[in-house]
Amino acid sequence: VFRAKTVDISDDSLTIEVTGDSSKLDAMEEMLGKFGIIEMIRSGKLIIARGSLVT
């Protein structure tokens, strides 16, 4: 349902990367909110170049 992956885990925290449209991100935030979200960052659309080209 969600395009999410765990990118870091420690004894007291979990960092999850979630991609999708706003409604999917809102639904994920609502689901995880009961566990206590400490920080959330929404970047918007991104383009990342591949290779050695400096952008």
Describe this structure in words.
By secondary structure, this protein is an alpha+beta fold. It has one domain. It is 20% helix and 24% strand. β1 (3-9) and β2 (14-19) form a beta hairpin. The protein is extended.
Layout of SSEs?
Blueprint: E1 3-9, E2 14-19, H1 22-32
Antiparallel strand pairs: 1-2
Mean pLDDT level: 87
The coarse overall form would be extended
Distance between the termini: 34 Å
Beta strand count: 2
List keywords for this structure.
alpha+beta; extended; single chain; 1 helix; 55 residues; 2 strands
Quick recap of the structure?
With 55 residues, this protein is an alpha+beta fold.
